[in-house]
Amino acid sequence: MVKVECRLEEVMSEVYDNLSPGLLLASVGGDGERNIMTIGWVLVGILFRNPVFMVAVRRSRHTYKLLNETGVFTVNVPSDDMGDAIDFCGTKSGRDHDKFRELSLTAKRGMAVEAPIVEECKTHIECRVSATTDVTEEATSKEVLASAYPAGNFHRLYHGEVLKVYRDA
User: Fold this and answer.
1) Which range of residues forms the domain containing residue 95?
2) With the C-alpha atoms ordered 68, 127, 24, 147, is the resulting torsion angle positive or negative?
3) Percent residues over pLDDT 90 in the chain
4) Fewer CB in 10 Å around end: N or C, the chain?
5) Any idea what the CATH number is for the domain that residue 69 is in?
């Protein structure tokens, strides 16, 4: 499939429309190991005068390790027929599974970052981490703690400067 470059604003309705069932976050470690995980929490805005795509990754996730090693990631909007891949990537750990291989997905190096894109997805956003914020018990409301963190396992928020956006032609 031919991919064409576009602006972040042009794909935002598609991104938000796909938060449920989920987007696919792809990462790469310092040793070249790749992983994909399903995400459903994002924020998009301007930070440090640059467009940013913020993703939340729990500290217990394999992706957390990879993001901290390289500081790059891609967000991939799945095609309509990728429900099984979204489910698998949201329930299986990259510590135990090579999700690209097991799902027969194509990992293609990003245009601007080392992290792969998922070629079968229809839209790709490439990011380099410009800042992180750790969610902490002290800084989080009791309501959010009860609903999102009953057992702890807090997120780190990765603020990714958007370097490249493209989608299927």
Assistant:
1) 3-168
2) positive
3) 99
4) C
5) 2.30.110.10
